[in-house]
Queue: 4 jobs
Job 1
Amino acid sequence: MTYQEILDEAIGAPPAPAVDLDQIIGREARRARRRRVGAYGLSAVTVLAVATGASVLVTEGTSSTGPAVGSVSPGASADGRTAEARVRSAMLAALDRSAPGLRWVSGVEHENDMAEWSGPAVAEPSWPVNPFSHLSASGWVGHGVAVRGDVRARLSIEISRPKAGQPAEPADCSGSERACETSRGPNGERIRVVDLEARYMPPGRPVIRPGDRTVDVFRPDGTRVRVAAMSRSEEFLLTAAEMTAIALDPTLSLP
């Protein structure tokens, strides 16, 4: 519904304004469930507060308004699988092709406190998938907490398309990112790779600049595939090349 170009961070950016903590925590929980793509565009500064008192300041292009869950019918296909099952299978297959060997932490997909991502890593993906719909776009999002070596991160894949009459999101850079590159894919796709600036502030511990990376692929037919990962450490979960390969996977499509 919805993996966060959630979640990052504000080095050299203006200080974040004061915020309502409860409102922020609720907003982040919604993003975890359906991927922060609020107004289907990059534009705002998001401040995330972790329930334990640790906080993350994120300067990014994503709107802070998350998409709402839509009433999408899960109609079964000829093979008996629901749309949700087909989308989930395609997402996990794309991950396995381009980033094999990932492991997963179960039961923490909606957990905002990064300290809670410390459970055992298992081979079986914990990857819920849900439809979403907001004013500008609709689609599907899947997410989980992935592990590679010592790096743990919330990883998400979102597949969406703008609604009738809504303009396509521009694929340029906003200038507020830690790093941003644009390119073209093999079939005319527009690709944007963004590393976000963030600070994770765990209580009583040094500030961490989490590895927060988002890759958007805009297809000629209007479909957008977004792959996003935010680590609880300074290392990135996946390379930009791996995330781009996942987003370009042709099996990632709307059911």
Note: The mean pLDDT is 76.
Job 2
Amino acid sequence: MNRRTRKLRVGLCASVVAVAVAGSGCSATVNGKAMPSATTAAAHVAGELGGLLLDTSSFAPPYDAVKLPGPAVSQALGDLVGDAAGATVEPADCAQDLIDLDTADAAIVVGTDNSTRSTISVALARTTGSLADQRARFEKCPDVTSTENGTVTKIHVALTPAAPVDADESLAFKRTVTSGSGSKPLTQTSVQLWAQVGDVIIVTAHISFSNAKPDSAALDELFTAQVLKVKKA
């Protein structure tokens, strides 16, 4: 069976938030330099990823959660992890393609807290890559500037201690994305927890356009529950 694979460059874009919060802007970035993979021939996790994704009932109030329909998943996944094809990146050697994610077999659920204009997204996708490579690229390129269609976006990534979960690899980071110019540029912040179980990448992200404190407790709970569900497959 043929599957469509997109090489997704890791950044952060507002379209996932815009599923539930209208009027959000969008920015993107690319990072990293190709490195030897620390993981080869990852074990295949059986089952359709849509069936392994957390149910909307896993999101406690104040999050109003919805599973994205099939036609929206590919675009939303690219936006969530940062598909920035066509952008000009500085430093230039940070413009390498990053982790490969199979958007044809992917699933996303998004919970929105309308009071703080923030979301928590949980996504599953298959990969032939490794989070060890991803970490190396973030270490090499913590700060990049991306220019696309005249819009300049500055991205800062700060690696944080990985969450203690039962997975092959895990990765955690904070990201600040600032785009536009003038006295009121658009600033987007996120806290992201990633894990790899076999050939499945788990992505969870708390995304905000305000100064709201990240809901770390809810993010950790959803991340842990999703890793366990994939691990049991």
Note: Residues 1-40 have pLDDT under 50 and may be disordered.
Job 3
Amino acid sequence: MLEKTSTFQKAIEAVEALDPEAQAILVDIIQKRLKQQRRDDLLKAVAEAREAYAKGEVRSGTVADLMAELDD
């Protein structure tokens, strides 16, 4: 954990060494990359769900069906 904190602290210090405009550009880039990463993760989850559905590994039903199954 100490290594991560040290790396994180170094990153903060490097960002602080940038002029304000460069910091703003960096923040924008990081935000865009995080959004893309979340999109990629969501697309992967959707693909996995579709694959499970295609294999018949997904069941459907009502909430009452689910509750009845849980009671069994």
Note: The chain has one domain: 19-71.
Job 4
Amino acid sequence: MPQGWRNSSVSRTTKWKAMLGACALTAMMTAALPAHAVQLSNDAQSAIPQQVQQLIDIDYRSMENSDTAMQMKARLMPPQLKALERALKASGLDESHDVDSLCFAAYRPAANSSFTRILGVAQGQFSVPDIIAAFNKKKVKPTMIRANKLYPMGAGGMMVTFLNPTTMLFGSLEALRPALAARDGRAPSIQSNTQMMAAMQQVQAQPIWSILDQKGTQFMMRSLLGQASQLADFNAVKTRLLSSSYTMNFNNGVKFALNVNTPDTITAATMSSLLNAAAMYEKLSGTPVEKQAIDATSIDSTAGVLEVRFNTTDDEFASLLQSPLFQTVVK
């Protein structure tokens, strides 16, 4: 998982606990699933820079329908995303009615960057003339980037701009500049990133999904493996981890699915063996709740894909939220 989303202490953890930490990142703002997902539109895609490391796409309308999801959100939502959510509310939008879906993009401003910026993309039905009229009434002058008008979202330094009545971007000015450069055709967008677009095609029909690029996938797998990441086998295959995606839903319990794409069956099988070994190691020292979580996790490979699946009930997952497993992840 990208460094920008979590404190660096997670990368140093040597525990199997990170398995559900990745799961929690997807679920931190989610709830019971609706019948159909809101897919990321072409307008939204055009404003996401090419060097994206991770996307998290969430059906926002149903967020408050699941007690389990709300508990997870309260405990696990990273500070950066909490700031974006607060800014969204401060903008005056009724997020429970105006916003259909939210996408958070962690991207590198340049190919050789060692850090990420975070951009928010909201889709829904926005009464842009009324919103702009409210800003004008308060005598709020927009910041101009070419023909794009950016308005402040409260006092936290976040800004918002509307691409059209159904798509808006929000985040810091530094995060919005590259996004608008992509949108205006001055820089490449995710639409020219064939690997990430292919990964998106595999999951975008799901109401809740996330995709990671190669660097983000390698970081995530190193965290999941813990001490096993020091083995020679991992060093030999880590550069062959190409991308990954995961989905989660809260229908009839909690279900999590992670797929890691590799170029061949041997790499996928090696990662499956390493991850199973890490799980068995942690099971020896885990609490009863943590052991139950590991038992509910299956790890396998099919062709060139590493597959991780986690299934549990709402009550069992609520207990897991109270365990040292999650306490370590969120520190």
Note: The two ends are 15 Å apart (CA to CA).
